[in-house]
Amino acid sequence: MKNNLWTSMKEFMLKLKKSKNFYLYIAIGLAVLIAVIYFSSFLKTPPAPSTNDDTLSENLTTSEEYVAKLENKLENVISQIEGAGEAEVMITLEKGFEYVYLTEEETKLSASGNTTTSTTVVMVDGQPVLTEEIYPVVKGLVVVCAGAKSVSVKMNILSLLQTMVNVNSSNISIYTSK
Asked: At how many degrees (to 10) do helices 2-18 and 22-40 cross?
């Protein structure tokens, strides 16, 4: 069976080579192959949502939990910088979580011509409707690590913190550990 298939393929290739349009068939075959490979990338299913513990987007109920999670994450990343060593991070917040709820405004015109506006929070099943959750704003950072002796390591840490936490460099202090 295997031999028969191989023989048939050889005969087909010989007929194809003798054809006037041999190179056209090869070009079309390659174009189809490339198109299949290209479009198959669109058919892949997206990865499942991460259940990794490293995300900050999980429901954190207090500013203290948020700070602890962020400090831990920053310590892990800073420790990955070449020459930094083990790091300790302390974060101070400008303000904690803010919650914005859906409201309704009602304007009433009194008989005397005065208008009064009242605002009430929209409730669904006895719960206020949350429209936006604003995460705490980081005010400052302190980093202590052995590698802070090196100016280049210090600059790398500073750049990393400015990028990750969006804090001005004047609000970041980096010290060498004992």
From this structure: 120
